[in-house]
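Appendix B. Chain record.
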Amino acid sequence: MTEETLLWILLTLLLLCSGFFSGTETSVMAVNRYRIRHLASKGDRQARRIMKMLRKPDRFLVLVLIGNNVVNILATAVATHLALIHFPNYGIAVATGALTAVVLIFGEVAPKTIAAIKPEFVARKGSFIIAVLMFLLSPIVSALSLLSRAIIKLFGVDPSKTDSMELSAEELHSALLSGSSQVMTEQNRELLLGVLNLSKIAVEEIMVPRNELYAININDDWKDIQKQVANTPHTRIVFYRDEMDDIIGFMHSRDALRLLTLEDFSKESLLRTIVEPYFIPENTSLLVQLQKFRRNKKRCGLVIDEFGDIQGLLTLDDILEEIVGDYTTSFDTDIEDEIEKLKDGSYILDGQANIRDVNKELKWDIPTSGPVTINGIILEMLGDNPQLNREVDLGNYTARITETDGRSVIKAKITPRPRPAQTEEDDSSPF
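Structure tokens predicted for this chain:
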């Protein structure tokens, strides 16, 4: 084997080493740190080596720069020697031009592109070699790392303090909305989005409205009370004295049915079983209320306004359904039964349809900061008794009353307004 052949082999190896250091640097910096941390906690050796590099990025970068500069300088020397053999008069110029192009393509652009596309794969493959080099060159790496730290401090930067990798709730929400199905299943994404949205939703938006509560006046005739208890369609019964705002408390339907089987069932035994009411301010977020339910060991509460008037009922199941979707068996009408699609793209909605349920079903964004139902928001916008064919503006939608009893909206036709087309930014722009 001739000297020239050996030089060509050496140059090839040096270019491969240059590509290795460049690709490993990019892959380690671009790797999913949360996934690597999880794998490292499970005992994955390669993941542990990568985490060790990430914990001390200055030492890792110093090692990569040492390796990259050494192999590139050696490659320059070898390429110049080969060029002078073939082009004695202008070998240095040929070596400079050719090696620059080759290093850019095979030592920088190609390996870094591959590493950016497959960061974990490249980082795993290179972690062992980096660990060995880190051990062998530890004294040099440590000295250069200390020197670089001292220089960095002169610019007023503390190398020990790095930007936090923690995500805020808004950042995580955006990441989940734009995330790939390869990272997380659609079901898991929906669950996480449901949890994050709890902080944005007030209890009044999902409560059972006051006019839909199944409540019993404890001062009614005893036989009427027994009949109402026996025929309850809900899991929780509210008891009050004469007026709804004078609440006595709750009772679970299973406790009510148990009392009905007793021979000595009386109003006194019923009152002893009723649980004292638990009150919830109407502007409380679902996340806060979920924590309060847990802390106070409660499963339901009455939502009240600033004056203490009863507005509705909220249960733990209502909050959980915001996360996982409807799962309880209910006598309520399904949202599909309250929506009728028309050929022109508009919809006929029942006045008692819940706005949040409509938004979920149709992917709409009717405002939810005020009334809970379609009837409620139309009446609020009108500020008057509803009249047939009256139209109101609901943000990006127009609502027209199609059926009314003079006091409330029974049905309304909702028509989405055409929205202006959004133009995407030109990716070719340098800015």
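Further analysis of this model is presented in Appendix C.
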